[in-house]
């Protein structure tokens, strides 16, 4: 019998309610509900609150078809817990300022350029005149605001991305007109491309007699950056951070690219954003610069930031002025956190401080649990499995070699190994050892690193091991190519054994318009994890094999659920659950 039989009466159940309220809804006595709960392993008194999943189990047993009652529309501006992924109604989106990061080779003038841009607003007569360094600032040009991230360089840019936080909309690539394209210019180009952000070229130091902007433009074409003058679509602006020449043009170019990118966000929702930098101030406690990305952050909001929480006691803008609220693309310093968060941590507004602390506790627990399982990153041994499962369409490679000629040759040869199933994409090829930056890029892009006739810096090796990025080194080209080819065809595939992690018993089946079927389950032994391999057993027969696509406790998405708890489970491609089915969770372990 499943919960889907047509004779059942639908009952709408809120996401949390007391046992008594549930009894009223189901028109039975509270004692009846308590008895049913007990047989399902839940001990609860009549005034105790239970979650939807638990209530639904009882409803099904009593012949109802449970349905989650949609939460009431919140009052505008009321902070609430909501999943970050929830999309905005397109009609609610409003234009927002672009967020710009300045990248480029050492000494080409990134810091000077940021200073010169900052000065334009002092010149424009801004009150106070002095800008605080808070990690980001805004300037206005032709009535449009532009937000600059004040930490130049792609190391910071990619470190953020490796932590899953994409803050930059536009990258300004600074190239010194006298020096031309240098190794870190190329690295910056590839980091920006990997992040998929448009590039604007600022040819700096044009005040110098040795300046040769044409040579720079020419050199850039070798790296796929073709400026407009040469028939390409990259905007290029000659500037001098020293004299201020061209800074206005650069700002106009940014506005132009921003307009084409149609950057938008919904300001009318609880604020969320990313930490740009944070520190412990001896007088004010933990302070963090946050770039608001969606919604509006307000003084008094309860927030969760990475693994800390608090209440926004005060907010300051980039001139040090107190502000009460901050909308999309606005950088603000917030005071009132319990601890110092990390750059790249996400901030979310939640209902109140108690909820905030609960979420932090849960996050810490989940992280600890995750630390015990290996990072699921791409590596050559498991490549074929990923391809077969349709999970990988592209193998991303970062290639480091001893000399430039080899880099080009290997790049070409590797790209030719692409198959209809998997494209090989080399997002960065350069000479020199494998560095920390390369590992960060691989981490952010889910790629692997190949070193040819080159060494791996100790720091890079340590980081790669910690984050699970694969580095392979070779001295013979054909061996390198053969390994990749074998990996693509699954011939490198080692032998695996199946290890069972846990079982969950299906106790109710719910329909969801979004994901198909959700199995209301009880974890009988072990642990079940989101993303894990799973097979559905009916008696002794295996009726389906797939992946656990969704795992919920109450209304929250969770990474794992231990034995003795209820949860909602979605298995990829399967919508024929029956009450009594057992879902077996397992993983493949390599046999050495
Ligand atoms: N003549 C001239 N010198 C400049 C210009 N921009 C920067 N410089 C000089 O170039 C040097 C490097 O500038 P920075 O702004 O520190 O360069 P950077 O790219 O931030 O360097 P790192 O932070 O070390 O990566 C400094 O001595 C600046 O004074 C310019 O437009 N013209």
Automatic annotation (TrEMBL):
GTP binds at residues 104-111, 150-154, 204-207. Coiled coil: none annotated. InterPro entries: EF-G-like_DII, EFTu-like_2, IF2_II, IF2_N, P-loop_NTPase, Small_GTP-bd, T_Tr_GTP-bd_dom, TF_IF2_bacterial-like. Keywords: Cytoplasm, GTP-binding, Initiation factor, Nucleotide-binding, Protein biosynthesis. Pfam families: EF-G_D2, GTP_EFTU, GTP_EFTU_D2, IF-2, IF2_N. The keyword Protein biosynthesis applies. It is found in: Cytoplasm. Residues 69-95 are annotated as: Disordered. Residues 95-262 form the Tr-type G domain. Residues 98-246 are annotated as: G-domain. GO terms for molecular function: translation initiation factor activity. Belongs to the TRAFAC class translation factor GTPase superfamily. Classic translation factor GTPase family. IF-2 subfamily. This is Translation initiation factor IF-2. It comes from Tepidiforma bonchosmolovskayae.
């Amino acid at each position: 019998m499943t919960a889907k039989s047509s004779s059942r009466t639908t009952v709408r159940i809120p996401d949390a309610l007391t046992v008594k309220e549930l009894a009223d809804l189901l028109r039975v006595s509270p004692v009846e509900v308590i008895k049913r709960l007990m047989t399902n392993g839940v001990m609860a008194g009549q005034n105790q609150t239970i979650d939807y999943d638990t209530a639904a189990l009882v409803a099904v047993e009593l012949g109802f078809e449970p349905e989650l009652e949609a939460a009431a529309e919140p009052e505008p501006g009321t902070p609430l817990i909501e999943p970050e992924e929830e999309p905005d109604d397109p009609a609610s989106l409003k234009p927002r300022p672009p967020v710009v990061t300045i990248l480029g080779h050492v000494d080409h003038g990134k810091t000077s350029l940021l200073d010169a841009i900052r000065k334009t607003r002092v010149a424009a007569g801004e009150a106070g005149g002095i800008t605080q360094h808070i990690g980001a600032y805004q300037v206005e040009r032709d009535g449009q605001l532009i937000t600059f991230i004040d930490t130049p360089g792609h190391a910071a840019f990619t470190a953020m991305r490796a932590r899953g936080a994409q803050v930059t909309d536009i990258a300004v690539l600074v190239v010194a007109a006298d020096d031309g394209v240098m190794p870190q210019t190329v690295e910056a180009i590839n980091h920006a491309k990997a992040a998929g952000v448009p590039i604007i070229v600022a040819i700096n130091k044009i005040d110098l007699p040795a300046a040769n902007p044409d040579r720079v433009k020419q050199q850039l074409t070798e790296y796929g950056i073709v400026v407009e003058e040469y028939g390409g679509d990259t905007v290029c602006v000659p500037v001098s951070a020293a004299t201020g020449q061209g800074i206005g043009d650069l700002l106009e170019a940014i506005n132009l690219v921003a307009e084409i990118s149609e950057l938008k966000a919904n300001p009318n929702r609880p604020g969320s954003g990313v930490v740009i930098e944070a520190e412990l101030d001896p007088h004010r406690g933990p302070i963090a610069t946050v770039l608001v990305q969606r919604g509006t952050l307000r003084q008094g909001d309860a927030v969760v930031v990475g693994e800390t929480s608090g209440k926004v006691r005060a907010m300051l803008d980039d001139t040090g002025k107190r502000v009460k609220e901050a909308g999309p693309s606005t950088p603000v310093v917030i005071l009132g956190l319990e601890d110092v968060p990390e750059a790249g941590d996400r901030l979310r507004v939640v209902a109140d401080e108690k909820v905030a602390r609960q979420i932090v506790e849960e996050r810490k627990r989940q992280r600890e649990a995750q630390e015990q399982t290996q990072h699921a990153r791409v590596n050559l041994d498991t490549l074929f499995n990923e391809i077969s499962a349709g999970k990988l369409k592209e193998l991303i490679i970062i290639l480091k070699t001893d000399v430039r000629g080899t880099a080009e040759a290997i790049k070409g040869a590797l790209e030719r190994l692409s198959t209809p199933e998997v494209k090989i994409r080399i997002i960065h090829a350069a000479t020199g050892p494998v560095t920390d930056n390369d590992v960060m890029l691989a981490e952010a892009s889910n790629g692997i690193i190949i070193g040819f006739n080159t060494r791996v810096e100790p720091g890079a090796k340590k980081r790669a091991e910690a984050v699970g990025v694969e580095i392979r080194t070779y001295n013979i080209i054909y061996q390198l190519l053969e390994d990749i080819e074998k990996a693509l065809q699954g011939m490198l595939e080692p032998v695996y054994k199946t290890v069972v992690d846990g079982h969950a018993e299906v106790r109710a089946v719910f329909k969801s318009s979004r994901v198909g079927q959700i199995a209301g389950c009880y974890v009988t032994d072990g642990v079940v994890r989101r993303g894990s391999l799973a097979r559905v057993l009916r008696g002794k027969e295996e009726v389906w094999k797939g992946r656990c696509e969704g795992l919920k406790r109450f209304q929250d998405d969770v990474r794992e659920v231990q034995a003795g708890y209820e949860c909602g489970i979605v298995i990829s491609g399967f919508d024929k659950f029956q009450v009594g089915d057992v879902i077996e969770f397992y993983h493949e372990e390599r046999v050495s």
